[in-house]
UniProtKB/TrEMBL annotation:
Entry keyword Nucleotidyltransferase: no
Protein name: Class I SAM-dependent methyltransferase
InterPro entries hit by this protein: Methyltransf_11 (IPR013216), SAM-dependent_MTases_sf (IPR029063)
Source organism of this protein record: Nocardioides zeicaulis
Entry's Gene Ontology molecular function annotations: 2-polyprenyl-6-hydroxyphenol methylase activity; 3-demethylubiquinol 3-O-methyltransferase activity
Enzyme Commission code(s) on record: 2.1.1.222, 2.1.1.64
Length: 244
């Protein structure tokens, strides 16, 4: 049996909850035995796009980085799904000119960096078919404040606290309530909110490397807390599935 690498193990802990949500949407009534048209905005090198194409769906990646798109192309060819994955250089703010329509839009780790999150969500809502879904993954503010304070960056933690300081190098951070309000303004209805990476970034990597079964147990623990509201403020990221 092939051994998974340390980076694969960490990735499975970080993205397990998000994958559960995305698979849930694709396994629902609308797509049973049917291909979905998926747009991955800021999809980068295809960490989601390529496995989704392997499930039989058609995926269009929009990303401003030519390097990321070259890696995406390589990965799609290596995995034999180049006919179902296309990459296009572009920005979320130009989505309506790049994409006609989509059943599912992934926007993972991008809203933090755009100039106008509200306009970006409206652009996504504009390309979703009626009944289509958005999978939105963003950095969560409270956990970022705690992380800065624990690293001794007290002034930076204080600046981040109320969310009105200019976005730093890592971009904006959002709270659950801010995100729900932004989605509502864009005409999108949140159906599920998940806490992502509640423990993953706190656990030393060596623990996963040394102890057999630790990765699977941590993935299970992340799953168990993902839908508990009391864990949302502790999560590094928030994942929202919203419907149009
Ligand atoms: C943090 S990475 C996330 C990659 C991928 N979505 C994932 O979850 O693994 C952010 C990606 O967004 C892209 N990006 C940055 N600004 C963007 C924008 N304004 N519109 C679309 N994509 C953007 C970057 O090139 C990068 O590939």
């Amino acid at each position: 049996m092939q051994q998974s690498s340390a980076s694969d193990r960490r990735q499975s802990v970080r993205s397990g909850v998000v994958w559960d949500g995305v698979r849930g949407v694709l396994g629902g009534e609308a797509f049973r035995d049917q291909q979905a048209l998926i747009v991955d905005v800021g999809g980068g090198t295809g960490g989601f796009a390529v496995p989704l194409a392997e499930l039989g769906h058609t995926v269009q990646v929009i990303d401003p980085s030519p390097d990321a798109l070259a890696s995406l192309d390589r990965r799609a060819r290596e995995r034999g799904v180049a006919d179902r994955v296309s990459g296009r250089q572009g920005d979320l703010s130009d989505l309506s000119t790049l994409v006609a329509e989509a059943d599912l839009v992934l926007c993972h780790g991008v809203l933090e960096m755009v100039d106008d999150p509200s306009a970006s969500l409206a652009a996504i809502a504009g390309v979703l078919r009626p009944g289509g879904h958005l999978s939105l993954l963003v950095a969560q503010r409270h956990a970022a404040v705690v992380a800065r304070a624990m690293a001794g960056h007290f002034a930076a933690a204080r600046e981040l606290l109320d969310g009105d300081a200019p976005a730093g190098r890592g971009g904006r951070r959002f709270t659950h309530d801010e995100l729900v309000a932004l989605l509502g303004t864009a005409g999108l209805r949140p159906e599920a909110v998940h806490a992502v990476r509640v423990f993953a970034d706190l656990v030393p990597g060596s623990l996963l490397d040394l102890e057999a079964g630790a990765t699977a147990a941590l993935v299970e623990l992340e799953r168990a807390v993902a839908t508990r509201p009391e864990y949302l403020p502790l999560a590094t990221q928030l994942h929202v599935l919203a419907a149009r």
